[in-house]
Description:
Blueprint: E1 36-44, E2 53-62, E3 67-74, H1 84-87, H2 91-94, H3 100-111, E4 115-118, H4 121-134, E5 143-146, H5 147-154, H6 163-169, H7 180-200, E6 207-209, E7 264-268, H8 275-284, E8 288-290, E9 299-302, H9 310-318, E10 322-323, H10 325-332
Parallel strand pairs: 1-4, 4-5, 7-8, 7-9, 9-10
Antiparallel strand pairs: 1-2, 2-3, 5-6
Helix pairs in contact: 5-7, 6-7
Amino acid sequence: MLEDHMAAADPITPRIGQQPGPPTPPAPWPDAYPEGYAVVDVETTGLARDDRIISAAVYQLDAQGEFQDHWYTLVNPQRDPGPVWIHGLTSEVLSGAPLFPEIVPELSRRLADRVLVAHNAMFDWSMIAREYARARAVAPVDRRLCTIALSKELRLPLPNHKLESLAAHYGVVQERAHHALDDARVLAEAFRPSLRRAARENLRLPLLTCQPLTEWSDTPAPRQHTDSASYRPGTWRPSRKRPACPYPNPGRYEAGGRLVQGMRVAFSGDTSVDRELLEDRAVEAGLHVATSLSRLTSLLVTNDPDAQTSKTAKARSFGTVVIDEAAFMQLLQDVAPASG
Length: 340
């Protein structure tokens, strides 16, 4: 039964909302702040694009960080569970769990009309977006907030940006690290005072737009083992090493002009077409896909031009043209041949 693998079945007893909360939030609350949050944690079979979610937890908080509800489920990844020694979920435990398409309706209900909050939110969002794309569905998430980015904005005196350090700063007790439900609880308890401090200071929250994936293609990766005991990190990751671009770099892209074969293109942030498919199209058109941005980079493609990332910052300092994904896809239809 699907319900057997959801919230009530887990041994962890979520305590958020059962203990006296922080003082009443300051008034007035910033008008621009979101109406609600979904604090999320997912455990996965690994970190690559073809890895799968094996458990997920969501804590729902209202506009001012008050606890509303929580939910947890296991997910059958239909493959080896990866590093069991980290997350503790074996093939036997996951064998009877629902498949991701089966949890989509309930997960969507938990995420809808809320900002997705996660620690290293890019990772959690990417995994969720890929699973939705595989299920031929669209995640109902428009924006995300990374608690690492929020901690930096608040200038919290943390030794590092691990969840355990953020939890310790606020006196939150972590009971089971790498368990989705407990990690989500810990994050929710740490996010609440961070949110309220941000509100007191009228701080602009570091919200980023989420681009649901519109195209997906799993890259088969060789797996020569069937049980989790033989899992070894890095033994079956698909290689994305690309051949060198055969064309010389013609220089910077000029706004309003055409792309030219050999131009160096960098990407930053979410893309609605899976990133590797987008990169493949760029390479097929004769462009060089750059993993970092330098003075030699011809163009930066990002759907979040205002995001405070190293690539967008360098693009501004170097004067590199920045365009969004839709404009780039249009330019790909008419790439000028390399000269000479």
